[in-house]
Amino acid sequence: MANIVAIVGRPNVGKSTLFNRLVEERKAIEDNMSGVTRDRHYGHAQWSGKFFSVIDTGGYVTGSEDVFEAEIRKQVKLAIEEADVILFVVDCIDGLTDLDTAFANELRGTKKPLFIVANKADNREKAMTVHEFYSLGISDFEIFPIASASGSGTGELLDEVVKQFVDEGIEDPDAGIPKISILGRPNVGKSSFLNALLGHERSIVTDEAGTTRDAIHTRYKLFGQDFIITDTAGIRKKAKVKEDVEFYSVMRSLRTLEESDVVIVMIDATRGLEAQDINLISLAIKNNKGVMIMVNKWDLIEKDHKTMGKIKDDMVDRLGENKWIPIIFTSVVEKQRIFQAIELATKVYENKTRRIATSKLNDILLQEIEKYPPPAWKGKYIKIKYVTQLPTKNPVFAFFCNLPQYIKEPYTRYLENRLRENFNFEGVPVKIVYKNK
Ligand SMILES: Nc1nc2c(ncn2[C@@H]2O[C@H](COP(=O)(O)OP(=O)(O)OP(=O)(O)O)[C@@H](O)[C@H]2O)c(=O)[nH]1
Ligand SMILES: Nc1nc2c(ncn2[C@@H]2O[C@H](COP(=O)(O)OP(=O)(O)OP(=O)(O)O)[C@@H](O)[C@H]2O)c(=O)[nH]1
């Protein structure tokens, strides 16, 4: 089970500082060139061998400097609903304020373990002031004086926090959940699609920076499907001049692509598959990503019952040997097949992680090979003895044979086609290697 710790409290008490201390990351991802700053409000942490996630609910809900009652309520609701442990942060320098009391009143009565964390206790003298917070009377635990800025006191706090977890937690709660990215030329409807998804109910929204500085992962749960959208939206803001737009859109695509498992290449139905789209698709294949094509703005096409099939056929022709890429027709504005698009992306992910048992693989493929064996080369017979799927992240099949160097490209394509016919690898690049045996 995932353990979740939520941080609540009024502005400026040091919630983000504590958050960053817990997830051991720097405050924000800052971009020196343009001042694009992206705070993070969700991250993974570990203490004494227990894993947990931290949400800074304040960073998540506050839109302005003022904290209104509704904001407090939202923040507390999020914490109470999502968290296993709540950290209510107050400030030793300011002492108890009316806003703290307002928060306390909302938190009162929660069944979740609630800790009052008295931040900015930079020295002994300040740490002595924590007593006044006991008057709130909302927590069964002792109050922990800490200084998030230096980290002092956080160890003692965490010792108690992790005792509240029922299990060890999950090292990477996002493991096994498809990371999907939406790429495509400007104006095809990428943002509209994201917004349409955002319009639906969702569980925790997690803006999490990935290993690449600008990539943001947002985790969704929609119609029972769990998935993460990777985006590098931050980078878009800094493109001011024309050349920059081109450059950054390429950079952005590359980075987003690296961070994802499945790439949705979105195209405009009124323009069809363009050279740039083909480049993007090749890039995704080269990077061993799952790929699908989403033909958006389908509402703008004048059509009869044959149109979709015809356009699809034309596209498949253009895709050549990559005809295994699935194509879906959508209208984001008319909310047509939006969910199916996500469903298709998660299916592609399933295919990408598919493992075929060696016995099954041999049963089927050795028969196919017998029907059409690799052609002899310079009088030498090539014998494929068996095949196995390698334990890699993407489907790779190793064919063991006597003379691997003599097998030519067309035969490899034959094998790939037989693999695809017998097992579902729709949307997934499949690799074939030969080994000497
Ligand atoms: N003296 C002292 N200052 C601290 C400490 N921790 C945080 N601060 C300062 O308190 C100020 C507010 O910190 P933040 O972490 O941004 O506070 P926040 O609660 O996230 O604020 P919002 O984002 O407005 O909700 C910053 O100037 C921090 O440097 C501490 O342990 N001691
Ligand atoms: N008719 C129609 N218009 C759409 C559809 N989806 C998006 N649009 C419109 O297309 C325009 C561009 O949409 P965006 O979502 O901003 O496109 P984008 O791909 O995010 O664009 P960039 O931010 O430039 O990369 C907007 O005016 C949308 O309203 C659709 O399915 N049908």
From TrEMBL:
<comment type="similarity">
    <text>Belongs to the TRAFAC class TrmE-Era-EngA-EngB-Septin-like GTPase superfamily. EngA (Der) GTPase family.</text>
</comment>
<dbReference type="GO" id="GO:0042254">
    <property type="term" value="P:ribosome biogenesis"/>
</dbReference>
<feature type="binding site">
    <location>
        <begin position="119"/>
        <end position="122"/>
    </location>
    <ligand>
        <name>GTP 1</name>
    </ligand>
</feature>
<feature type="domain" description="EngA-type G">
    <location>
        <begin position="178"/>
        <end position="353"/>
    </location>
</feature>
<feature type="binding site">
    <location>
        <begin position="9"/>
        <end position="16"/>
    </location>
    <ligand>
        <name>GTP 1</name>
    </ligand>
</feature>
<feature type="binding site">
    <location>
        <begin position="231"/>
        <end position="235"/>
    </location>
    <ligand>
        <name>GTP 2</name>
    </ligand>
</feature>
<dbReference type="GO" id="GO:0043022">
    <property type="term" value="F:ribosome binding"/>
</dbReference>
<feature type="binding site">
    <location>
        <begin position="296"/>
        <end position="299"/>
    </location>
    <ligand>
        <name>GTP 2</name>
    </ligand>
</feature>
<comment type="subunit">
    <text>Associates with the 50S ribosomal subunit.</text>
</comment>
<dbReference type="InterPro" id="IPR032859">
    <property type="entry name" value="KH_dom-like"/>
</dbReference>
<dbReference type="InterPro" id="IPR031166">
    <property type="entry name" value="G_ENGA"/>
</dbReference>
<protein>
    <recommendedName>
        <fullName>GTPase Der</fullName>
    </recommendedName>
</protein>
<dbReference type="GO" id="GO:0005525">
    <property type="term" value="F:GTP binding"/>
</dbReference>
<feature type="binding site">
    <location>
        <begin position="56"/>
        <end position="60"/>
    </location>
    <ligand>
        <name>GTP 1</name>
    </ligand>
</feature>
<dbReference type="InterPro" id="IPR006073">
    <property type="entry name" value="GTP-bd"/>
</dbReference>
<dbReference type="Pfam" id="PF14714">
    <property type="entry name" value="KH_dom-like"/>
</dbReference>
<keyword id="KW-0690">Ribosome biogenesis</keyword>
<dbReference type="InterPro" id="IPR016484">
    <property type="entry name" value="GTPase_Der"/>
</dbReference>
<feature type="domain" description="EngA-type G">
    <location>
        <begin position="3"/>
        <end position="169"/>
    </location>
</feature>
<dbReference type="InterPro" id="IPR015946">
    <property type="entry name" value="KH_dom-like_a/b"/>
</dbReference>
<dbReference type="Pfam" id="PF01926">
    <property type="entry name" value="MMR_HSR1"/>
</dbReference>
<keyword id="KW-0547">Nucleotide-binding</keyword>
<feature type="binding site">
    <location>
        <begin position="184"/>
        <end position="191"/>
    </location>
    <ligand>
        <name>GTP 2</name>
    </ligand>
</feature>
<dbReference type="InterPro" id="IPR027417">
    <property type="entry name" value="P-loop_NTPase"/>
</dbReference>
<keyword id="KW-0342">GTP-binding</keyword>
<keyword id="KW-0677">Repeat</keyword>
<dbReference type="InterPro" id="IPR005225">
    <property type="entry name" value="Small_GTP-bd"/>
</dbReference>
<comment type="function">
    <text>GTPase that plays an essential role in the late steps of ribosome biogenesis.</text>
</comment>
